[in-house]
Amino acid sequence: MLGKKRKLGKKIEELNVGDTFETSSEVKDKDLLMYLGLTDDANPLYLQHDYASRTPFERPIVPSIMLQGMLTSAISMQFPGPGSHITYQEIRYPVPVHHYETLDFQLKIEDIKEEEHLIHLQVKGMNGSGEEVLSGTFHVSPPYEPDSLNSISLENFY
Question: Count of domains in the chain?
Fold first, then answer.
């Protein structure tokens, strides 16, 4: 990843109200274990089948922050893409997500504030049964066009 030139995502002038992006993501054991190890989160609801089976959830669930991470990854890597920055987010998690589920995410541009260099995204996540597992709003600053090297390379010379 380092040393490789990456293409920037869509600039604000390339985006329109109503534009959508859809992606899917599967919850895998390795991802859960990496998250739990990285955060030192030992919540038994996330890993222990015997504990979770005695709760209303019935089996282990996925940490909400992991679902948020799937969304932020889609924003920063796909739509609008590399160079984007999230400035605000509000997410609801109405239904828990269980291990091994595949989730479908939809991101839709609801508003563009060019003077603030922001887009407002509505996001939705559905599980394989068609239940909404998350919904929310993100404010995102799309990538800026970098200054040309030519425009600044000779500024110290007359």
Answer: 1
DSSP secondary structure string, 91-139? EE--S--BTT-EEEEEEEEEEEEGGGTEEEEEEEEE-TTS-EEEEEEEE
Structural domain span for residue 113: 13-27+64-143
| 49: in domain | no
94 part of a folded domain: yes
Which CATH number is 138's domain given?
Answer: 3.10.129.10
Identity of residue 126: M
The model's pTM is: 0.85
Structure tokens that stand for 1 in this block: 């990843």
For residue 21, give the 3-state DSSP assignment: strand
- pLDDT single digits (tens) 82-123: 999 999 999 999 999 999 999 999 999 999 999 999 999 999
**pLDDT tens-digit readout, 122-143:** 999 999 999 999 999 999 999 9
